[in-house]
Amino acid sequence: MSTPIAAIATGPVPAGIGILRLSGDGVPAIIDRVFRPFQGAPMSARPDRVLVYGSLLSEAGETLDLCLCTLSRAPHSYTGEDCAELQCHGSPMVLRLGLSALFAAGARQAGPGEFTRRAFLNGKLDLVQAEAVIDLIHAESALAAKNAAGQLGGAVLRRTEAVYQTLRDLSSHYHAVIDFPDEDIEDFTLRAYEDRLRAAVRDLDRLAGSFRRARLITGGLPTAIVGRPNAGKSSLLNALLGYERAIVTEIPGTTRDTISERCELGGVLLRLTDTAGLRESADAVERLGVERSRAALAEAGLALVLCDGAAPFTGEEAALLREAEAAAPTVLVRSKADLPQAVWPEEYAARAVAVSAVTGAGLEALGEAVRALVPAPEQAETGEILTSARQADAVGRAKESVAAALDAMEQGFPPDAVLTETEEAMQALGELSGRTVREDVTNGIFERFCVGK
Q1: pLDDT digits (tens, 9 = 90+) for 365-375
Q2: Rounded CA gap, 334 and 175, in Å?
């Protein structure tokens, strides 16, 4: 028996559409109490996955909204249980009153991630797919969305399932020969599985290594915006974000501390850090800001070096450019392109990307320069980039165990020693998909979800 749960599945602000979601035993009967079709039979007598127009009713039976309703019976639903959705107008008050009506009809409030948790427990999703749901919700770049969608489609499971099958074949063959010596079973030899185990190590190593690139599509590549005071760093940050995040004045040295925000540029998710202008200063606060700017540059995976295009390019700009290039891949940005431009040495003028934070000119070219320096991960389209430390740890332990099995085989250890390692690898892969995962791990995963998902 599964207690019916209900929740508002959309955001808490006014919107065009708001959704009430319901899952569990008795959902058709609950829906009949809160939704009245304008024509025909009640929802409980209708076929699955058909949108029906009607009235959403309050606890007292009064009309709250005119909405659409759809019903999906077990097991052909997201959670594997009877499910329903009410697609209302996105009034927070209407949704709250509608939710109260569902509670009065027999449902209870769903907890964070409870719909997806039920989908996992009912075998509709593996654990990586469940994690992909929250990754997809929080995706801030096209690459992040593609990777999450690929994981939700089972890309990681398909990759690891082949490895798991190899390990299971080896184990079951060995135990069959030992347990049924009188049966006509092909003799077990470790060497017969050597090539498959080596392929498994390669696949797992490639998958585990993808986690190192995950920050590029989830957290964003650390990117320092550096330059002399009044070069236009804060203006560029605001232009890239699309709103006034940093204070901009004509007074040099306005930015005293670092400011970090994420944005997508050239298809790459960047974690931009606007820094204080780099110069010598007698002001103690400004000197501290300069120190933090240099620390941000030292930790950056990409540097945008801004130089005032309306002013001459001096030895100070050249020195700053060299400092940035020693720290990270660097794009030279010629700012204030909307103003009359100064004459620069050809070697710098030719490589600079001219940008105007006022008009937006050059931002597309800046994105192209960033994309050229930070190519997209090859695996992003397939969904095979591991995005959580839990996933990377499980795959890493599986790879180590399979490698240890191969090593034991090469050193001539008995089959039992090899089998011990392969079964450890199977255990680790089981944790990845959720076959053998601990309850505290699943609790930690679904705590990241919001209510209604």
Answers
A1: 988 888 888 76
A2: 69
